[in-house]
């Protein structure tokens, strides 16, 4: 029987749960859910997705194979805001892990009452990741989300402060674990114990594209050029070939799958291009700062696209390219030319952007903290004067 994964916001009657479990889809989050469920707790998984991570389609597999109940929540806009304004820096590539966790925990905190949940659990393991899972980071995340006493990390709980759910007896601390570090022995023992099927272990939710240099470079290019990039822009970065000339962006399919995806991704304001009578890739030219592109930019993008077709390269003379923009399709004639003024974004530029952005974010965060401290002092003085 086909099951449907609920999307947060569905208006079904709201069932109540003991706790919510953040489900990245990685093994640790799955084991966390199973470890708590073994105590007889009623749990709802919350799986966040965005152009950068997540795979809502996997939630159905978790349900069918392990009986995990989960809702899927789109966190694209919030993640994009974090990338424009990272407050706690980036990891090795463009992964703002601490901000990302704060974002997801804050979003989950906001739905705790709705689901009657007394705690939020995560699959974090003390010392497993250098940026976001050392003791200070775990404590900062707890403090910055206002989740003191409510944030449970069952895999490392015995090494951490007791939570309200443990103190009240809702969660039995004795049955929680003290895993630490990067080793996987403890997790593998749990895999055995809970009989987690291979397909779940081998199929994490696709990893995080922000940690991949190729994707991260494309995202950084977009963030640099476009001040209001949205989820559709970032999704477009996840496949095909990308070329930029200043503020002009063309994406060219590498295979049939890319070509289909490009056609599906095309917005009414995009220009889609294809060779009229010859086999070759689809290209999508996405205007950034104006609704229209100049004819010379369209022609250059078409020349570049045509250069990826063997048939076009073998042709003698110009080729015909059909260009669709909104309702209008026109055919232009161009020479076949690999344009070396349309550039592939490079990591060195992305890295420089990332370093500058992280510093800007740090200053902003300090300024916010200073302002918050002053606001507290002002409130205290006002109270004393009364
Ligand atoms: S790796 Fe990606 S999904 Fe995971 S915490 Fe970092 S930014 Fe978020």
Automatic annotation (TrEMBL):
<feature type="domain" description="Thil AANH">
    <location>
        <begin position="17"/>
        <end position="155"/>
    </location>
</feature>
<dbReference type="InterPro" id="IPR020536">
    <property type="entry name" value="ThiI_AANH"/>
</dbReference>
<dbReference type="GO" id="GO:0004810">
    <property type="term" value="F:CCA tRNA nucleotidyltransferase activity"/>
</dbReference>
<keyword id="KW-0547">Nucleotide-binding</keyword>
<dbReference type="Pfam" id="PF02568">
    <property type="entry name" value="ThiI"/>
</dbReference>
<protein>
    <submittedName>
        <fullName>Thiamine biosynthesis protein (ThiI)</fullName>
    </submittedName>
</protein>
<dbReference type="GO" id="GO:0005524">
    <property type="term" value="F:ATP binding"/>
</dbReference>
<keyword id="KW-0067">ATP-binding</keyword>
<dbReference type="InterPro" id="IPR014729">
    <property type="entry name" value="Rossmann-like_a/b/a_fold"/>
</dbReference>
């Amino acid at each position: 029987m086909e099951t449907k994964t609920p999307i947060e916001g569905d208006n079904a009657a709201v069932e109540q749960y003991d706790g919510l479990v953040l489900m990245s889809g990685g093994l640790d989050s799955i084991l966390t859910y199973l470890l708590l469920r073994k105590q007889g707790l009623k749990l709802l998984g919350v799986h966040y997705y965005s152009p950068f991570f997540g795979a809502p389609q996997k939630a159905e597999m978790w349900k069918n194979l392990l009986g995990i109940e989960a809702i899927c929540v789109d966190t694209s806009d919030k993640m994009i805001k974090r990338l424009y304004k990272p407050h706690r820096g980036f990891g090795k590539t463009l992964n703002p892990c601490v901000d990302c966790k704060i974002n997801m925990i804050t979003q989950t905190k906001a739905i705790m009452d709705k689901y009657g949940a007394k705690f939020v659990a995560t699959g974090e393991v003390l010392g497993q990741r250098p940026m976001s899972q050392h003791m200070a980071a775990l404590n900062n995340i707890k403090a910055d989300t206002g989740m003191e006493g409510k944030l449970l990390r069952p895999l490392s709980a015995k090494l951490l402060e007791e939570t309200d759910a443990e103190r009240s007896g809702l969660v039995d601390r004795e049955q929680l674990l003290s895993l630490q570090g990067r080793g996987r022995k403890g997790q593998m023992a749990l895999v055995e114990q809970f009989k987690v099927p291979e397909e779940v272990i081998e199929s994490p939710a696709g990893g995080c594209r922000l940690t991949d240099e190729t994707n991260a470079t494309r995202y950084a290019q977009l963030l640099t050029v476009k001040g209001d990039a949205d989820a559709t822009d970032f999704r477009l970065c996840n496949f095909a070939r990308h070329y930029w000339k200043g503020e002009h962006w063309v994406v060219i399919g590498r295979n049939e799958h890319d070509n289909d995806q490009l056609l599906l991704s095309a917005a009414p304001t995009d220009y889609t291009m294809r060779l009229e009578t010859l086999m070759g890739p689809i290209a999508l030219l996405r205007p950034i700062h104006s609704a229209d592109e100049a004819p010379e930019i369209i022609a250059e993008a078409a020349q570049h696209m045509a250069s990826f077709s063997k048939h076009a390269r073998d042709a003698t003379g110009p080729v015909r390219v059909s260009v669709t923009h909104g309702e209008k399709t026109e055919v232009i004639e161009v020479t076949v030319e690999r344009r070396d003024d349309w550039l592939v974004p490079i990591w060195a530029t992305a890295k420089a952007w990332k370093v500058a952005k992280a510093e800007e974010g740090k200053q902003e965060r300090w300024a916010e903290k200073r302002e918050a401290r002053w606001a507290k002092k002002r409130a205290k003085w006002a109270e004393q004067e009364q």
